[in-house]
Description:
Layout: H1 3-7, H2 14-40, H3 45-49, E1 54-57, E2 66-71, E3 74-80, H4 83-88, H5 92-97, E4 123-127, E5 138-140, E6 152-154, E7 161-162, E8 168-170, E9 182-186, E10 189-192
Antiparallel strand pairs: 1-10, 2-3, 3-4, 5-6, 6-7, 7-8, 9-10
Amino acid sequence: MSAANxxxxxxxxxxxxxxxxxxxxxxxGVVAAAWPFIDQxxxxxxxxxxxxxxxxxxxGLQPGExxxxxxxxxxxxxxxxxxxxxxxLRDATRLARMIDAKSEKRQQPAYAANGxxxxxxxxxxxxxxxxxxxxxxxxxxxxSPPDDGPGGYLCLCCASHFDAAxxxxxxxxQYNLPVPPYEIATPARLVIGRNRSxxxxxxxxxxxx
Length: 209
């Protein structure tokens, strides 16, 4: 038997063991430090729920009541308009004050480029973000001075005023509040994020957001 075979398997030095242990601990530390970042890449249930398509139950929505939801991290305000709100949208005096009364700017899909900026005159769906300063305009069910009409919006940050259809008419805002892509699936159910009537309209199609 040779001397090499008599020596047996090579021994691992204490220094090598220390190097290996240190490397293993370092790798574990890197994984532990990176895990919060990796975990952020996996959206939670609340974020997934505000994704591409969300359902809105209209059955319990009372006249004059706003409901705010999250869609693509944007506040979407859904309002069941009262008869007075719908009538105010046709008021000639107020229409003369509107910056974009005919919705000629691409702030809404084609099916909402009308006098009430919606599919159903009784249901308003708007992106609740002021297109001038980025704040959330406050919905007001009642008329308040200056006479915006019932169901208007006021941005408390820049003092921009919008009517019940989200049309700008006073203050620095020069664009109407955007209308997101949506459709009414049933009289009691609205779907935000899907619009078979104008499939080319997306958030990217909005002129100012």
